[in-house]
Amino acid sequence: AKMQNYLLSSSVGPEELPTLKELSTSEICKIWSGASRYIHRQLLQKTAVEIGVGTFALVPVHAGVEEGKVLTVERPVFIVNKHVRTFYNLECDETKIPDETPVVQLDFGEIAADTHFRREIVELCVHETLLCFAGALRDNKEVEFSFK
């Protein structure tokens, strides 16, 4: 799904979320856990994952360990897409992914095999969840989404 799909000028109605209506909460959680595991595996290989509204990546940060000593560590971050930030007027820290970092999309086939759902169900579930998020951003609602 292209990022433009998530720039909503009107609220998301239930007719735009048919898959989420059919799935139970635990099924949706299973699919996102699969997505989370996929992202984790990519990050371990120093690959960033773009999911339509933003990108999960490892970025170097400097941590002070003791007096005068600075250690560079890699921290996993989610960087909201520039178009999404602008469109929804979001304030986010300007974080840059290192140039040498390869970027991939979610592999719905791999996530489907891992979670035992059909590939199209996985793709639609992810797409509709992101639409839900975009709707919450549009309507200034507070959302919480935890990733393992």
TrEMBL record:
Pfam families: HU-CCDC81_euk_1 (PF14908), HU-CCDC81_euk_2 (PF18289). InterPro entries: CCD81, CCDC81_HU_dom_2, HU-CCDC81. Signal peptide: none annotated. GO terms for cellular component: microtubule organizing center. Residues 11-89, 102-148 form the CCDC81 HU domain. This is CCD81 protein. It comes from Onychorhynchus coronatus (Royal flycatcher). The lineage of its organism: Eukaryota, Metazoa, Chordata, Craniata, Vertebrata.
